[in-house]
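From the pipeline queue, job 12 of 40. The input is one protein chain; the requested action is below.

Action: predict structure.
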Amino acid sequence: MHNIIINADDFGKSKEITFAILSAMDLNLCLDTTLLVNFEDSYHAASLAIDTNKKDNIGIHLNLTEGNPLTDNIKKERRFCNEEGLFHYSKNERIICLSTSEKRAVYEELTSQIHLCRSFGIPISHADSHNHIHEEPGLLFIFIHTMKKEKIPFLRITKNIGTTSFINKVYRESYNSILSLSHLAGSDHFGNTSDFVIFPPHPKKNSITELMIHPGFIKNDQIIDIYAKENLSIKLPEIINGNNLISFNHLKR
């Protein structure tokens, strides 16, 4: 038996996504979600989470890749924003190191997103990031510093179930070791639902696997993952059956 955390990313990105995620949580298909604070439905999503007694299971989905930044300095940094001041992101180039001004701008933006999330009434139980931007080597220690300073107990590890190249495997093992040494790793394994079904990690005693989902819309009363195009109303019960579904909020620091 595995201890599994199922987290729905992109809470608050749109009303349709918000509703799909809350429906999944109401059905106990997942217990956790992470809030995008700079999108159209963020405040509404936070309010609904509070009204339905879910606020303690809401983390933050930190964002440096899409939409409108909260702070001005990062709008000047072309690595992160275009000339209109909107986030833009390309996976074609890894972020290896940052200039002093980029580091300052990233820290200001992350901190502002965290403070806005808390102003909505969300305590923030854990953190991850939009498009997994926190996995970039040049951003890792800024994220770690921010988590420590803002007293956020968990930052998502990088994917370590499923198949990948040898180089990616070495990098991911190193990355996850740094998070563990920083006491920010909330799980031992991370991947998506297909990874877990095909390549489940060997369950060690009390180990935890986090699975990422993206409920996007509801069709014929079925919750559909917007990226994987999976029917989560069918797939998640199959995964949960025989495993122990827990929340980041269950974990103690």
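Job complete. The chain has a mean pLDDT of 95.
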